Amino acid sequence: MGIYAISIAVGLGLGPTLGGLIAEDLSWRYVFFINVPIGIAAVLWGYRIIPKGSKNPGQRLDLAGTLTALVFLTTLLLYANRGEDWGWTSPMPLALLGVAALFGVLFFWIERTSAQPMLNLSLFNNRRFSFASLSALLNFMALYALIFLTPFYLTFVLHYSILKVGLVMAASPIATLFVAPLSGTLSDRLGTRVFAVCGMCIAALGLFLLSGLNASADAWDVIWHLVVVGVGVGMFQSPNNSAVMGSVPPWHLGIASGILAAMRNMGMVLGIAVAGAVLYNVAPIASSLHPGYFSPAEIEEFLDGMHWAFISGAGLAGITALTSLLAVERGRGGSRTAPT
C-alpha cells in the first residue's frame, strides 16, 4: 500500500510540473494532448502485466446497479462542480440534485434486493471498513482544497510563472513519496490507526499554517507548508488503504478497491466545491481574477477568502483524524463465508 501511495504521489507531483513546463513553452491546450501517449502506454502496459482472471460460473454483471450508480454519481458531482457558477439554488442545479437523490435511493434499493449486487452493502456493517472509507473521502476533500487554492495564490498574489507554480506544487507529493512507504511498513508492525490519525493531524496543521500566508511570502515559505501537508497525507494514506483492504474477505477485494477509487474521485470534486464555495463567498473578487491586475484591496480580499478556505480544509482534515480514530473493528462485521 505504501508503494501504491508512492505511485499516486509521483503522479500528482509530476503532473503539475510537466503541465507547467508544457504550458510555459507551448500552450495550455497541449497539456491535454500529452495525456494521449501516456494513456496509450498505460493501456499497453496494463494489458501486458494485469492478470486476465477468470469468471466464476453463474456470475453476471449488475447492470441495473451500474447504470443507477453512474447517473447518481454523475449528477451529484456535476452539481458540486458547477453549482457555484450556476447558483446553488437555481433550477438546473436543483434539478441535478433531485435526480441524484432519486437515483441514489434507487441504487441502494437495487443493491439491497439484488442476488448479485455490484456493491455488497453488508461490507458497511464492518465499522473499520466504513470509517476508513469515509476517511479516504474526507482526506481527498482536504487535500484538494490545497491543490485547488494554492495555484491561485501563487499566480495572482505572488505572480509566479506557470512553470514555477508547477515546481512549487510538487513539494507536497514529493514529501508523500518519501513518507508513504515508511508509514506503510511501520503500520504493518504497529497497526494502522495511530499512523492514520497522526497523519491527518499533521495535515490539518499544515493546512492551518497555509491559511496564514500573505502577499510577502516567498517560495520557501509556501514549500515547507506544503511539505507538512505532504508528510501528513503520506502518513495517512498507506495505513488507511491497508485498513480498507484488510477489513474485507479476499473475494471482496475488487469492490473494496473500487470503493477506494470512488472515494478518491468524489473527494477531489467535493473538496474543490467546498473550498471554492468558501473562497467565492468570502472573496467574490476571486471569481474574476486576472494576473497582474490586483489592487492592494483586492489582494487583501482574496487572502481573506483563501484564509477561510484553508481553515475549512484543516477542519476536514481534523474530521478525518476523528473518523480514522473510530475505524476500529468490533467483530468482523459482514460475512466472511465464501459466496456460493
State the CATH architecture of the largest domain. Answer: Up-down Bundle
* Poorly predicted parts: 331-340
Number of domains: 2
CATH C-level label of the largest domain: Mainly Alpha
Order of helices and strands: HHHHHHHHHHHH
- Note the overall shape: globular
By DSSP (H or I, 4+ residues per run), the number of helices equals 12
CA radius of gyration is 21 Å
Query: Based on DSSP secondary structure assignment, what is the total number of beta strands?
Result: 0
Strand content: under 5%
Could you tell me how far the N terminus lies from the C terminus, measured between alpha carbons in angstroms? Answer: 30 Å
Arithmetic mean of pLDDT: 85
The major sheet is characterized as: none
Q: What's the CATH H-level homologous superfamily of the largest domain?
A: MFS general substrate transporter like domains
Q: Which structural class should the secondary elements be placed in?
A: mainly alpha
Helix content: over 70%
Output the CATH topology of the largest domain.
Growth Hormone, Chain: A
Model description:
The protein folds into two domains: 2-41 and 123-326, Up-down Bundle (Growth Hormone, Chain: A), CATH 1.20.1250.20; 62-117. Residues 331-340 have low confidence and may be disordered. The protein has helices at 2-25, 30-33, 35-49, 63-86, 91-113, 127-157, 162-169, 171-190, 193-210, 219-246, 253-282, 296-326. It is 75% helix and 0% strand. The radius of gyration is 21 Å and the shape is globular. By secondary structure, the protein is mainly alpha-helical.
